[in-house]
Amino acid sequence: MASVILLAVGLSIVYVLTNHLLRLRKNVLAARKSGIHYIVVPVYFMERWWLIGHRLLFPLLKKLPRSWTRWVDFTLPEFTFDYRHEVFKRVGHDTFLTVSPGGMVMYTCEPPVISAITTRRNDFPKPTHIYTSLDIYGKNVVTTEGDVWRKHRKATSPPFTEKNNHLVWDESIRQAQAMLSSWVGQDGQGHQTVDRLMDDTMRLSLNVISAAGFGRRMDWPTSETQSREDETGYIDQSKIKNENRDIDPGHTMSYTYAIHCLLDNILLQFLLPRWLLSKIPGVTAKKANEAYHEWGNYMRELLINKKADIESGVAEKETNDILTQLVKQQLIDTDAKKNGQLIESEVLGNIFVLVLAGHETAANSIHFSALYLALAPETQRRLQKDLEQIFQGRPPSEWEYDRDLPSLFGGMAGAILAEELRLVPPVVGIPKSTMEGVGPQKLTVGGKECLVPANTYISLCTGAAHRHPDYWPTAKPRLAGGHTAHPIANIDNDLEEFRPERWLLSESPDGTTRTADGIPIETLAKEDDLGVNESSDTSDRLFKPVKGSYLPFSDGYRACLGRRFAQVEVLAVIAVLFQNHSVELAVDKYATDDELKKMNNDEKAEIWHKAAEDVRELMLNGLGVIITLQIRGGTVPFRFVPKGQEKFPDNIDEIWKKNHPDQISNKGVPGWSSWAGAPQRESGSGAFDLFGALKSQAK
Ligand code: HEM
Fold first, then answer.
1. Residue nearest to atom 19 of ligand 1 (CA)
2. What's the CA gap between 183 and 194, in Å, rounded?
3. Is there a domain that residue 91 lies in?
4. CB 516 within 8 Å of CB 522
C-alpha cells in the first residue's frame, strides 16, 4: 500500500514538473519570437501562492547563495518601484519580458511604448480578472473592458463637470480649514504634534467625495471625539461624529461609521467570499460584514430618495453632485429605456469605485506633498510667496474657483502636486495586457518592430518612467541629508529628489511664479463620448513631459476619470494649509520644545537631521501597495505652525551638510536588494551585482 502511495506521489510530482517545463518551454519560444529582451524566472508574479507566501520564504531564500536567488526581485509585485529606473538600466532595455511557466509579463518605462499601449485600447486591454474583487456592489467602470466598459464610461463621465468641480473646490476648502484647526489647536499656535496626517487626509478626501459625489456632507469630528476608540475598541472614534445621533432609522451604524468600517477592512471585503465573512467569529469580521450591508443600504436609500425627489420635482434644479447626475441620466432619463443604461446595482458599483478610486489617491497626494514640504523648507517658503501673490491676503471665504484655481494650477502649488505625483504615483504598475483573447500584438520596442506574445500581462512602470534620465531635464543631485535619495537609482542626477522647481517654466524677478491666465480647457476626445481627456496633466505654464513619460493619472482611453476632481481638491487643500501656516517635522523623539528653544542652529540641525533621516528611511523602505502606494511602515509626526514662527531655519539641511562634509557621498550601494535586508548605505564593495548575471542570461 505504502509503495502505491509513494508511486502516486512520485508520478504526481513528475507530472507537475513536466507540465511546468513544457509551459516554460512554450513561453520561452514565444518570448524568443517576440524580439523583446527577456529574462527567465521560475515563478509568475501573479501566482496566488507566491503573492501571499513569498515573504515567508525570504528567510530560506536568504540562506541560499545570492547567485541562485537573483530572480526573486523580478517576481516581487513592486520591484520596478523599489529599484526605479535602475532595473531597466541594469537589464539594458527600457522594455523587457519576464518568462515563467505561469505566464509572461512585459515591463516597460519606454515612453513611446507606453504611449502606443495606452492609445491602442482594443489591442492592449486591461487584464480585468485582477479587478473582480472590486465588484462587491456591482460591475463598474474600473473593472470592465470592451463594450461593457464603454457603457460604464459613457454613463459615469458626464457628471464630472466644471459645476461639480466648483462643489469640490468649496468642500475641499471647508474641510481643509476644519482639518487645519484640529491640528493647530485652540490658540492656533500649533504647539501640538500631529501624528495622524495620513488618517486625517483620508478623512478629508472621503468627506469631499461624499459631499461632491453624493451630496452627503460629513463634518469634521469635534475635539472631544478626537482619537478615542468606540465601545467595542474596534474603530478610532475620531473618524466618526455623533455616532448615536446620526444612525438613521432602520440602520445599525451611522453612514460615517459604515463607510470608515467598510474602507478600513477593504482587504477582507476583497479577499473573502461574502458567505465566509459572515461566518467568521470576532469583532473585525462581524463589523466588516455589517458595514458592507449598512453602507450598501444607505446608498440604495439615497438612490431611491434622489430618484423620487427628481421625479416629483422636489430636488433642487442646480444639484451638481455626481450621484444626482447619475440617477438623472441613468435611472430617470430613460428615453424609452435606451440601450446601454446602467441598472441600479451598476450605479451602486460605480459609486463604490468612485469612492475607492477617488479618496485614497487624492489623500496620498496631500499627505506626501506635506511630507516633502516638511523636508524642503525653502520650497515651502516659495509656495507661500506664491500664495501671497495669488490671494493678496484674501481669506479662504473669499477665494474663487474661476479666478484662483488657474493661478494655483500654474504656480508652485501645481508644481508641487506634479512633482509629488512624479515621485509617488499611486499606481506604480498600470496594468494592461494582450489577454482577453486579443492575441499577439505588433509593437515598436526600442525602435524595432516586435510582437508582444498573446496572454502577456503588461505593467506600465510609472515609478521608472517618471525618473527616466533620457526624458527628464536633470540637475546635479543635491544630496539631501548628505546621501543620495535612493541607494542605487539615479545617483548622478536629481530625479529621485523632490524639486518642484523643475516644473516651473517662468518666474517673476521677485522669485514668484507668473500666475496663469487660464487653466487648460479639458479637451475631450471626439470619439464615443467617453469623456477621454486629451489635455495635459499639468498647466500650460509648467514643464510638459514627453508623452508616455509621465502618467500618474494613466493616459488614453482608460485614463483617470477624476483627474480634474483630484487636482481641484489637492490644490485647494494645499492653499488652505500653507497660506498662513508652515509644516515642520516634529522632533519630539529627539528633543523637547524647551530644549529646542535653547539650541543654536548647528545643534538644531543635528536634531532635524535625525528626524529627517527617519522620514527618508520610511519613504525608502516603508512604502507599499494595498490599493495605492502609501506609507505602510509607520507614520511621520508633524507640527503645523503659524507662518514666520518656524523653529528651524530654512537652510537647515545645508547647515547639517556644511558641518558634516565627511558624510556627504553620492556613491550609493550597487547591490542594494530590498527583499534581502535593509540597504547598506556605506559601501558598495563586495556587494553582489543583482542584475549583472541576468543581463547575460537573456537571449
Ligand atoms: C491624485 C489623485 C488620483 C490619481 C493619481 C489617480 C490615478 C488614476 C490612475 C493611474 C488610473 C488608471 C488605473 C488603471 O488603469 O488601473 C485611474 C483610473 C480611474 N480613476 Fe483616478 N486617480 C486619482 C483620483 C481620482 C478621483 C478623485 C476619482 C473620482 C472621484 C477617480 C476616478 C477614477 C476612475 C473612475 C478610474 C477608472 C477609469 C476607467 O477605467 O475608465 N480618480 N486613476
1. 560
2. 6
3. no
4. no
* 97 DSSP β-pair partners: 38, 106
Residue 42 reports pLDDT greater than 80 = yes
Probe ligand 1: pick from 364, 457, 560, max atoms within 8 Å of CB?
Answer: 560
Please report which confidence band the pLDDT of residue 528 belongs to, taking 50, 70 and 90 as the band edges: low
Residue 524 lies in a domain: no
The verdict on residue 215 lying in a domain is yes
Q: Is the dihedral of CA 70, 75, 78, 81 positive or negative?
A: positive
Average pLDDT, the chain: 85
Q: Is the pLDDT at 692 greater than 70, yes or no?
A: no
Q: What is the domain count for the chain?
A: 1
Q: What is the average pLDDT across 398-422?
A: 95
- Within 10 angstroms of residue 144's Cβ, the number of other Cβ atoms is 20
- Would 643 be classed as within a structural domain? no
Confidence (pLDDT) at 533: 64
For 342-356, letters b (16+ CB in 10 Å) and e give: beeebbbbbbbbbbb
What the block records as the C-alpha cell of 68 is 541562485
Q: Per-residue pLDDT tens for 133-189? A: 889 899 999 999 999 999 899 888 888 888 899 999 999 999 999 999 999 987 778
Q: What distance in Å separates the CA atoms of residue 101 and residue 24, rounded to the nearest whole number?
A: 4
**pLDDT above 90 for 310:** no
* β-strands 623-625, 629-631 pairing: antiparallel
User: What domain range includes position 171?
Assistant: 161-335
ipTM of predicted complex: 0.99
- Measured CA to CA, the distance from residue 393 to residue 90 in angstroms comes to 51
Name residues contacting ligand 1 (CB within 6 A): 141-142, 153, 209, 353-354, 357-358, 361-362, 365, 421, 426-427, 430-431, 552-554, 558, 560-562, 565-566
User: Do 309 and 315 meet the contact criterion of CB atoms below 8 Å apart?
Assistant: yes
Identify the helix (H) or strand (E) that includes residue 50: helix 48-63
Residue 614 cell numbers, joined: 527617519
Is 109 a known ligand-binding residue? Answer: no
Q: 243 pLDDT exceeds 60?
A: no
> Of 535, 529, 533, which Cα lies nearest the Cα of 558?
533
**Mean pLDDT of all residues in 678-684:** 40
Q: Measuring CA to CA, which residue among 383, 429, 410, 320 is closest to residue 82? A: 429
Q: Which three cell numbers stand for residue 445?
A: 520596442
- Name the residue of 157, 202, 356, 361 whose CB sits within 8 Å of the most ligand 1 atoms, as the mutation to test its pocket: 361
